[in-house]
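Observation: inputs received (chain + iron/sulfur cluster).
Thought: call the complex predictor directly.
Action: predict_structure
Action Input:
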Amino acid sequence: MALETPLALIEQHRPWSVSKIDTLKQCPYKFKFNYVKKMKIDRPVNKALVIGKAAHAVLQYAVTGRNLDACFEFAIVDCKLTSEEIDELLGYRPAITAFLVKYHSYLKKHDIRESITERQYAIDISGKPVKFFDNDHAFIRGVVDLALFVRQQPHIVVLDHKTGKHREFSHYNAQFDFYRLLLRASHPTITGMVTGIHYVSDASIKTSALTDVADLEPLYNKVMGYMNDIASSIATLEERRTGWWCRFCDYQDGCLNGEEGR
Ligand code: SF4
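Observation:
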């Protein structure tokens, strides 16, 4: 098996992440504003994003065994939360506490030898690991919230923390494919991977079946095929794809006025 070749659009706009390819798929014109023109629009900061970032910060440190009060204090300061945002973040505390109980019992039950949090991964066009910020060589990259390495078998469990609403599990298929590729490339002795979502609001966890990741090429080709399929449906980045998402688009004004932002 050979590695699939990226189409010109994919090659031209690397490095790629899940959110970047999702933006291209959703609306090529928005992609152009955001990733080609790199236009920044002054908007009020989205509260849900701020709370999500703060919850991630709490979890990042809490899973290492640090005192939970200190983790919240750190997140509140680091994310510069307002008093209203602090109240909202503290509303997650019972669920985060419940998650930590599950997490520590999972560590014991499955004999986890190592866990890593908020780790940045990147690969080049040949699937070899490179530094995350190496823009000359990075082709695909992503940040993993939590990965657990099993001691007795060459397996990893990867969890992504989600603070938004619950979505169908299949909604995350592409994200999981990116994770499988990035983690397998960086940990070549791994042969099996479980991927899952931790829904922070209620501490529920949903995971996939164990997936065979022993061979890198099919993982690479699945991700590249996904990106090439999206690129092949686009004739030009001038294409506007309208839908419900336009209401949340930072570039709506420029788009509607036929201008490239202001
Ligand atoms: S407003 Fe809609 S059509 Fe226009 S750039 Fe944004 S997502 Fe695309």
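Thought: report the result.
Final Answer: The domain at 12-37+112-256 is CATH 3.90.320 (Lambda Exonuclease; Chain A). The pocket of iron/sulfur cluster is lined by residues 27, 29-30, 240-242, 245-246, 249, 251-252, 255 (CB under 6 Å).
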